[in-house]
Design a protein that fits this description.
By secondary structure, the protein is an alpha/beta fold. The chain folds into 3 domains: about 1-100, de novo design (two linked rop proteins); about 100-235 and about 300-374, Alpha/Beta hydrolase fold, catalytic domain (Rossmann fold, 3-Layer(aba) Sandwich), CATH 3.40.50; about 240-290, no CATH class. It has helices at about 1-10, 20-30, 35-50, 55-70, 75-95, 145-150, 175-190, 205-215, 235-240, 255-265, 265-280, 285-290, 295, 320-330, 360-374, and strands at about 100-110, 110-120, 125-130, 155-160, 195-205, 225-230, 310-315, 340-345. The termini are far apart.
């Protein structure tokens, strides 16, 4: 719950719910009770939505509905309704604010990937593709660089890849489909006329797939830089080190059952596990780890031929810090502009993805892009 609270307070720096509204909600939530969290933020979302009249208040409604989804079971009608109302609120914010964004639906097999894209991207000389992780919806990416970079003149494309947002409801899950979705998004972008320089910006799990793609990018993609919080070159190693051992016990289903039984006594953990199992698909994370081959989850860092900026919070898991450092050190001899920027507790950005102070992280991104690509 603390991470979700920090995330929402971080959004307040860029719009969304006010700190006062959030503190009022936090004061009435019963700690450790996901149903209390969902109930309080549902009431908040309904009230904010009922009074929404401009871009700012519609963005607040979007964040309120998004807040309910932190601890809602995504398979329920309640969560699906909250997702639709979140999407509608963001669209209304874009419309009433006159933002130069348009909604795309990118075909992937029989499913579609939702994206928000700058209206001027087709003929732009450069653009940033922003990808989130396991806890983001495409609307979140407005706060993870969409707004800040747009205001600095960067066209952006923000997209939910398979496994992210509500895509599991279409049968799309993390794994090979995610990388396929990234390629499909780039193909769609090129089909709309974009032929400029591309920057990949990945957050959390997005750091896995942006780092991977940076090593196999096609010439027509014109990739010129990678930014990630954090770049991950060996996803399986992160999972097996950062996750509790009981989660990675592929050959011990009894341990998995025991873990799920324990989680039932921790309702926040149980809710989180149910969500991740939904995102990872049939068999959950253990089956995903068993089925993934090294060609997908491991990146040949020697093949990355663009400068890299790694954003690292000092409260991140040690495995993430190590991998970020390894990627930067491997690329720096070829691209001396590569950097690893760390954020301590006093910066407000020490948490995962710098959620406590995203503007500080994004300021570093913007300055680095300006210096590196000038």
């Amino acid at each position: 719950m603390d991470f979700g609270a920090a995330w929402l307070l971080g959004y307040a720096q860029q719009g969304g719910l006010s700190p006062g509204t959030l503190l009022s909600c936090f004061a009435t939530i019963k700690d450790g009770d996901p149903r209390s969290w969902v109930s309080v933020f549902t009431k908040c979302a309904e009230a904010v939505e009922a009074n929404a009249c401009d871009a700012s208040s519609w963005l607040a409604a979007q964040v309120a509905w998004r807040a309910t989804l932190f601890l809602a079971d995504p398979r329920t009608h309640e969560a699906q309704d909250a997702t639709k109302r979140m999407e509608r609120a963001f669209a209304r914010s874009v419309e009433t604010g006159g933002l130069a964004l348009e909604k795309w639906s990118i075909q992937l097999g029989n499913a579609t990937l939702p994206a928000w894209v700058s209206t001027n991207i087709s003929n732009a000389p450069r653009a940033v593709m922003i990808l989130g992780g396991g806890d983001t919806y495409v609307e979140d990416l407005w706060f993870f660089g969409g707004r800040a970079l747009s205001e600095l003149g960067w066209p952006v494309i923000m997209v939910d890849l398979p496994g992210q947002g509500n895509t599991p409801a279409q049968g799309l899950h993390f794994g090979k489909q995610t990388l396929d979705g990234l390629v499909a998004t780039l193909d769609h972008l090129h089909a709309h006329g974009f032929a400029g320089d591309l920057v990949l910006l990945g957050w959390s799990g997005g750091g896995i797939f942006t780092t991977k793609y940076a090593s196999i990018a096609r010439p027509e993609d014109n990739l010129v830089a990678l930014v990630a919080s954090t770049p991950i070159h060996d996803a399986k190693a992160v999972f097996t080190e950062a996750f509790p051992a009981i989660l990675r016990a592929d050959s011990h289903p009894r341990l998995m059952r025991a873990m799920l039984a324990i989680a039932q006594r921790n309702r926040v953990m149980a809710t989180a596990i149910a969500k991740y199992q939904w995102q990872f698909g049939p068999g959950g994370i253990t089956e995903l780890l068993r089925s993934l081959d090294d060609a997908l989850v491991k990146t040949d860092v020697a093949a990355i031929d663009v400068p890299v900026l790694a954003l690292v919070g000092l409260s991140e898991d040690a495995a993430l810090r190590r991998q970020a450092r390894h990627v930067v050190e491997a690329v720096r001899p070829r691209h001396p502009a590569s950097r690893m920027v760390t954020f301590d507790a006093y910066s407000g950005g020490a948490a995962h993805c710098q959620v406590g102070n995203l503007p500080a992280a994004l300021a570093r991104v913007a300055a680095w892009l300006q210096d590196t690509l000038a």
